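Entry 14. Ran structure prediction on the chain below.
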Amino acid sequence: MSIGEGWRNLFENWPETIPRTGILVTNYNETVPFKAFMISGSILLVERETPDSQGARKVLIAYDCISAVKLTTPLDLPRFLVMGFQAP
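Output, structure tokens:
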């Protein structure tokens, strides 16, 4: 599985119990805070709470251009079991 496929799988299977908010980090080291997202086969659409410096509120990005997703909501680690994570 490629990195892009891994990110697509994560967003496609995002559980309802985890808030759909966070910060997307791109391969270009750009950070994009988001309050919601929508998926497609090869591109992720994220919605920003406030516009960026160019006035954009929506960002479309290829899954393989995502390097990290930061979650801003405080959650206990066991809540991530539904996302496929497990203790070592």
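The CA atoms of residues 2 and 46 lie 21 Å apart. Will compare against last week's run tomorrow.
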